[in-house]
Design brief:
There is one protein chain. The protein is of the alpha/beta class and 419 residues long. It contains 10 helices and 27 strands. Strands 3-2-1-7-20-19 form a 6-stranded mixed beta sheet, covered by helices on one side. A hairpin with a 4-residue loop joins strand 21 and strand 22. Helix 1 runs parallel beside helix 7. The chain is globular and about 55 Å long.
Length: 419
């Protein structure tokens, strides 16, 4: 479903509250306003900043190439013209579904007819992390600016804990700024849960070629003033430490609300939030990193932490809110997940899903040349497609996913793309 599909007449909702002032929340508010000039829209955010773009935080903003105003998702006058009541720097603290009320950190209470939960996620942390000024995380604009001040001039010893996409992007940026960089990963290869050991090692190779030391299979024992202490007592020296060990959905404020929570807000196929009894709660939806839903295209439940998904889900739940207002059934959200990552000069793109035990085959290019297309298969079907420096090979695979191609069909269709 797209914005243009919302042609069903409906009675405007009195007030819609959007909890989360990032990409998903902004797209929900914009889409609501685009199709409804009467509904009162309130956007609640725990940060003081208006919505900004997060992907540049670990790349162009961290490197100093861009300044904060460059990553604002909209121009100031566009935010003003949206006619939204912005409640920024004022986090939601609890939800009462019976009264249909939301309580904020300042004690104020908002009633709602429709609710969009788009509270995103927060970084997982190491024990005692707050005790060290040289230890950083990278999730918000303020995080990125603090880290940038430490590494912008180069010459520092930077230790990155965690070889996920954020950690690897931060490592690449720090190295390009002239710092010595070590990446520590507990698994046997970077990105192993998402790409498997073989492809994770291929990504590690891109970093090692630029002089980044990537150490896998290491166990962190703790943080010290000198750097990072490993199990066994070795100290990996670090003037700056970046902790990038994944994120946790922001759902603690929803505990006791009656919503079903399981590594996110559990939703039905329409992104309608489910109560603990499994019944969809009327007019309550979730979007972005916090939403967990069954994706019919893959016949699996998923929670996706990527930019494209946040943008699409935010708009989608706004349209389903309109169907709710009209007393009509909503539509199922069954997308093809897509994400990208820039690390050094390499563009990494991924379509679909992947897991460590998927069947893996390089169908075009070669890992040795740092330009390749890899397919992931599961149960005889195409499950994922990874491209490194190969955008013209990646995007044609989209049709194969939408056609639910078998593994053999996908391999046949993509083999020889490099001919």
């Amino acid at each position: 479903m797209t914005d243009s599909d919302a042609t069903t007449p409906f009675e405007p909702l009195g007030r819609v509250v959007v909890v989360g002032a990032s990409l998903a929340g902004l797209r929900a508010a914009e889409t609501l306003r685009q199709h409804d000039v009467a509904t009162s829209i309130v956007v609640v955010g725990d940060e003081v900043h208006r919505p900004y773009d997060r992907p540049p935080l670990s790349k162009k903003l961290l490197s100093g190439e861009w300044e904060p105003e460059r990553i604002q998702l909209r121009q100031p006058d566009t935010f003003d013209d949206l006619d939204v009541d912005w409640r920024l720097g004022n986090a939601a603290t609890s939800l009462d579904l019976t009264a249909r009320e939301l309580t904020l950190a300042d004690g104020s209470v908002l009633d709602f007819d429709g609710l969009v939960i788009a509270t995103g996620a927060h970084p997982r942390r190491l024990a005692g992390q707050d005790a060290f000024d040289h230890v950083h995380e990278l999730r918000t604009l303020d995080d990125a600016l603090r880290l940038r001040a430490e590494i912008i001039d180069g010459g520092r010893r930077v230790v990155v804990i965690g070889a996920g996409f954020i950690g690897l992007e931060a490592a690449a940026t720090a190295k390009q700024l002239g710092n010595d960089v070590v990446v520590l990963e507990g698994a046997s290869a970077p990105l192993i849960r998402g790409l498997g050991a073989e492809m994770g090692e291929a990504i590690a190779g891109l970093h090692r070629a630029h002089g980044v030391e990537v150490r896998c299979g290491v166990l962190i024992d703790g943080l010290t003033d000198e750097g990072v202490r490993l199990a066994g007592g070795e100290i990996v020296p670090g003037d700056v430490v970046v902790v990038g060990i994944g994120v946790t959905p922001n759902t603690s404020w929803l505990e006791g609300s009656g919503l079903q929570l399981r590594d996110g807000v559990v939703c039905d196929a329409n992104l309608n939030a489910l109560a603990v009894n499994g019944v969809a709660v009327p007019g309550v939806f979730a979007a972005g990193d916090v939403a967990r839903w069954p994706n019919g295209l893959f016949d699996e439940e998923m929670r996706v932490e990527h930019w494209t998904n946040a943008a699409e889900q935010g708009a989608f739940v706004a349209l389903n809110l309109q169907f709710f207002a009209a007393g009509e059934p909503g539509e199922a959200y069954a997308p093809l997940p897509f994400f990208w990552s820039d690390q050094f000069e390499h563009r990494i793109q991924f379509l679909g899903r992947a897991a460590a035990d998927d069947q893996v085959q390089v169908v075009a290019g070669s890992v040795a040349d740092s330009k390749f297309l890899v397919l992931f298969g599961r149960d005889g079907k195409l499950h994922g497609a990874l491209g490194v420096n190969a955008p013209r090979w990646v995007m044609p695979t989209r049709k194969l996913f939408l056609d639910r191609a078998t593994w053999d069909e996908a391999v046949a269709a993509t083999s020889g793309l490099d001919a």
